[in-house]
Amino acid sequence: MIKIVGIGANVYDTLYSIPTYPKEDTKMRASASKSAGGGPVATGLVAASKLGESTAYIGVLSDDTGGKFLKSDFEKYSVDTGFVSIKPGYRSFTSVLWLCADSATRTCVFDKGDLPPLELDGKQIEAIRKAEILIVDGNEMDAAVEAAKIAKESGTKVLYDCGGLYEGVEKLLKLTDIMIPSEEFALSITGCKTVQDAAKKLYRTYKPEVVVITRGKRGGLLYRGEKNLYYPIYPAKVVDSNGSGDVFHGAFAAGVVKGYDYVKCCHFASAVSAMKCMGVGSRESVPDFEGVKKYMKENGYEL
């Protein structure tokens, strides 16, 4: 049985490492470039797989260069592709990213392509019913909402990586068990001025099991209806921050499957995300489980 399934963005990334951001209408030589897989749910599934959990992607891919790369990339990291529908002749979801050395930031320009929307078939529905966790990110919204309803009926927990304010987002929020928004998303959708108030409002409005607000370099907070609990970031010499949030969500899902409580999941996911930032590539830089345990112990936290 596959324990973690996901529906959402799967992106063919081209990464350029640059010393600083170039001025307009100039040329700059990159220090390195590479192709990589990206996207919130897709990268989260890879992270969970590398941490030792069984995962599968449910979605649509093209047969173009990007689609072929993304399918083989999943297979390289042991993410099951048996629930992927291949649609010939379409343009894949692609992006170009600048990884800036002097500011340790990244800038992204993307093209969503023209793939048709996901329509769930019987095999995909059965995988959702049998899974322990369904991860969604707001992409493929109609299919994600349908899948979340199936999950709720089947006892599968719905983990929502809340990043974009997509049309129909409230439908998905109402079906969420584990709500993990970015600080920007939480403040925008609630209208609150503080993350503490935003966490309470999200919890009271949508009634998930837990709200975890990620705050980048400032760690984050967890709220379950009583008081805010804070988790830290773990030390890292940042080389590439791209995909760190996606990795956090996948690691959190892996932690839940491993039986950790939500506080321990926050620490675990924060540590995995920090370790990922010390290498280039949102997927290949994700550590294995034993490496995470060692790193956390070195930094004063034992699983």
Please give a structural write-up:
This protein is an alpha/beta fold and 303 residues long. The protein is built from 10 helices and 15 strands. Strand 13 (210-214) and strand 14 (220-223) form a beta hairpin. Helix 1 (40-50) crosses helix 8 and helix 6 packs across helix 7.
List keywords for this structure.
alpha/beta; 10 helices; four-stranded mixed β-sheet; UDP-N-acetylmuramoyl-L-alanine:D-glutamate ligase
Q: Any idea what the radius of gyration is?
A: 18 Å
Number of strands: 15
N-to-C span: 25 Å
Strand content: 15-25%
* CATH C-level: Alpha Beta
Write the H/E string, N to C. EEEHEEHEEEEHEHEHEHHEEEHHH
What is the CATH T-level topology? UDP-N-acetylmuramoyl-L-alanine:D-glutamate ligase
Mean pLDDT: 95
Q: What is the CATH architecture descriptor?
A: 3-Layer(aba) Sandwich
Report the helical percentage: 25-40%
Low-confidence stretches: none
Secondary structure class reads alpha/beta
CATH-defined superfamily: Ribokinase
Count of folded domains: 1
What count of helical segments does DSSP give?
10
Biggest beta sheet summary: 9 strands, mixed
Main β-sheet, spatial strand arrangement = 6-4-1-10-11-12-13-14-15
User: Overall 3D geometry?
Assistant: globular
Quick synopsis:
Helices cover 36% and strands 24% of the residues. The protein has 303 residues and is α/β, with parallel strands linked by helices.
SSE map:
Layout: E1 4-7, E2 11-18, E3 32-38, H1 40-50, E4 55-57, E5 59-62, H2 65-76, E6 79-80, E7 84-87, E8 94-100, E9 105-111, H3 122-130, E10 133-136, H4 141-154, E11 157-162, H5 169-173, E12 178-181, H6 183-190, H7 195-206, E13 210-214, E14 220-223, E15 229-231, H8 244-257, H9 262-276, H10 289-298
Helix pairs in contact: 1-8, 3-4, 6-7, 8-9
